Amino acid sequence: MTRPSPGPRERLLTAGQHLFYARGVAVGVDALLKEAKVARRSLYEHFGGKDGLVAAVLHRAAEEDLAWYDAALAAEDEPRERLLGLFDRLDELIANDDFRGCRYFASDVALDDPDHPAHAETEAFRRRLRERLIRELEEMDHADPERAANQLHLLIEGTLVMGATQDERQPARAARDLAALVLGGGGA
């Protein structure tokens, strides 16, 4: 039994996710349509235009990325080790030749309009990641989980930005050392 090929909506999402990450959200509509092998009408029918597609791609990517963070956090038994281990997983991620940095940061920087629907998606992603960090910090009875979550989040975002621009400097390892200070309670 053959599996049906994806429809225009799915092809647009897949093309958008690939091109926006590889080349940025400024990629042209014609390139998106060509990669997705769809007519311009499909873009407007399914997403109302490129802005809607950008937001939908970021929403889908956020679900995938949050699942990645969940899996990374699940790799260890203790909350402190889970949080430190997250930086080990980030080290592996940024070592990948296809790594291009943080898609949420890149989108926010590229989209000048503060009302662009993509900003709501990037904000929601960050809020949900921060909630995961707070949960882990509360589980380890950290004295100030909100503040520590902000600090860890800064280290994560910094790792992703630096990882896209700094060959061989291994920012995730430096961030892990700083995260150990934020977490307290023992050596790295």
UniProtKB/TrEMBL annotation:
A Pfam entry, by short name: TetR_N
Domain HTH tetR-type: 6-65
Keyword set, alphabetical order: DNA-binding, Transcription, Transcription regulation
GO molecular function: DNA binding
Lineage: Bacteria, Bacillati, Actinomycetota, Actinomycetes, Pseudonocardiales
DNA-binding region residue numbers: 28-47
InterPro entries per record: Homeodomain-like_sf (IPR009057), HTH_TetR (IPR001647), Tet_transcr_reg_TetR-rel_C_sf (IPR036271)
Source organism of the structure: Actinophytocola xinjiangensis
Protein name: TetR family transcriptional regulator
